[in-house]
Amino acid sequence: MHHTKEKGDLGVLKAQLDLFEQGFVILNPVTEHAPFDLVAYRNGEFKKIQVKYKSVDKTGAITVHFRSSWADKNGIHMRQIDKDEIDLYCIYCPDTDECYYLHPKDYNRSVTLRVETSRNNQLMNVKLASDYRRVP
């Protein structure tokens, strides 16, 4: 089991490697308080990327909520992200050891990517994780 911070660090490292293999130059912010975890550059274009570490749930899917959370002496806090500050979400899944990329502006509060076939074999409106393997 990984501590939450270690999971996030692993997700960022996996994203950096995956993006590098897709031909991007990787830039890292100097602060941990930026709204994004890294910047990828290719062909004159910069992409601000937020990385999430998410495991497959018991239904065979990965669900990502577009919010940030933190804890302090007053408890746990959550806030919806500002989608204008982020170009892409990269979801690293340790169960598949793959990264998935999507534009957060294309979705409302969350998105679910299916890794395994659903129990009822539903196909309509299903977002297969394998379709999100490359940076759009």
Notes on the protein architecture:
There is one protein chain. With 136 residues, the protein is mostly beta strands. The chain has a single domain (4-132), classed as Trna Endonuclease, Chain: A, domain 1. The protein contains one helix and nine strands. It has one helix spanning 4-21, and strands at residues 25-27, 38-42, 45-53, 61-65, 67-72, 75-80, 88-93, 98-102, 110-114. It has a five-stranded mixed β-sheet with strand order 1-2-3-7-8. β2 and β3 form a beta hairpin. The radius of gyration is 15 Å and the shape is globular. The model has no long low-confidence stretch (mean pLDDT 92).
Main sheet? Answer: 5 strands, mixed
CATH names the topology as Trna Endonuclease, Chain: A, domain 1
Number of strands: 9
The CATH architecture would be 3-Layer(aba) Sandwich
Concise description?
With 136 residues, the protein is mostly beta strands.
List keywords for this structure.
136 residues; mainly beta; Trna Endonuclease, Chain: A, domain 1; 5-stranded mixed β-sheet; two-stranded antiparallel sheet; globular
SSE diagram, text form:
Blueprint: H1 4-21, E1 25-27, E2 38-42, E3 45-53, E4 61-65, E5 67-72, E6 75-80, E7 88-93, E8 98-102, E9 110-114
